[in-house]
Amino acid sequence: MRDLLPAADYEVFLAAFDRPRRIGLRVNMLKITPHHFSSIAPFSVAPACGWDPAAFIVTDDSRPGRHPYHDAGLYYLQEPSAMLAAAFLAPAPGDLVLDLAAAPGGKATHLASLLGGALDGRGSALRRTLDATGLLVANDVHAGRTRLLAENLARWGALNVLVTQDEPERLAECFGRVFDRVLLDAPCSGEGLFRRMEGVELSEAIVAACARRQGGILASAPDLVRPGGHLLYSTCTFSPEENEQVVAAFLAAASDFTVEMPPAIDGADRGQSEWAAADPLIAAQLALAVRLWPHHFPGEGHFLAMLRRREGAKTQMAELPPFDRRPPTSDQYRLWRDFAAATMTLDLPADRLHVHADRLYLLPRRAIALGAERGGRRAHVVRYGLLLGDLRPGRFHPAHDLALALNDADAVAMRWSAGDPRLAAYLSGADLPGPDLPPGPDGWMLVTVDGFGLGWGKRSGGRLKNHFPHALRRR
Fold it and tell me: Which of 80, 187, 237, 260 is the most exposed place for a label (fewest CB within 10 A)?
């Protein structure tokens, strides 16, 4: 970095790593407006920037990841620089979007919010996205990370999401050139996150290996982006080998892509053409990329390059048939109908119910085929739409995912405030005695924190049996 930066700039850059890192959070616009969140926030927050009203900085010593609002999916802990990628990609509500390396889900949850459109009123995430026409495909190649991705998207309450675990070239075989927007937040050496790390392993060999991997992933992108579509390449590293040089190599191989000017952001710097090590015409385009430096921008280090495929490119946009839905049997539908009639006030469309492995899902309105219908292999699906629950012999057991997509207007609800000791007992896994329950018949109840869905309980024998997931319970 001393070689790359001017001497005076290097000293300021170095000093930035002695400052404490900021804890950022992004409000879930599928569930709550920034203004509403500011009015109920249990810790001190301040706007993080002027370009995203959902972006905040925690300004006290609170631990927002331990608050019930986090369990209810009202916000995602994310540092401000990482919030720029989805904001730059800016999908429209009806777009088909792919997050190619999406785990753990920070940028994917942001994209899901943007696909939901403007938030008006206090409707739940499920009500907001029930008729939305956009779809997010969130992918990662690692099984463990993909499960974490699916969990974070479930907590977000996102319906219009397909979570996959596949290599990029496999996705290209399954879907083809159909996506309006593609995000590649590439695996990288992570130099921009050094301030957050207690220990770091870095070498020139690691940087070179990351650059090779990034180039390999990018090579599949032309087979995924439609003509006129956008591809955003981002990393959280300062390394030119992983940033300007990777993009320059991609442009040399994919002549129908160009770098596009992003929106103006205070504190953002331009990419460095002289670091691209490429043909001058290609290198000049890298000046349209964005670099976020920790001594100029209120966040960690990031690089972003918005690439656009020209209209009329020498390729045809692929077309996908609709998803081959497996509807519930009459007995399975009766189990769901009985649960919904007794517990929910929100009607869900029967023609979008799908059964897989005795689990009932609600498909997105735009449910696209998984690849086999085009004569190839199917994408490896981890989640498609919203998991409603398990179809067990003679009964329906609602999923935690469903609770997180609802609020207290959608179901028979137990309403507790964030500071209520009964809520703390529920989060620890305790059953609730009869005196703590309002009058009513036995059956399932949605447990809410200040009206937002948090989990399920089942009234039986004068008690509320706790169905908050064991893995999430407080110790």
Answer: 260
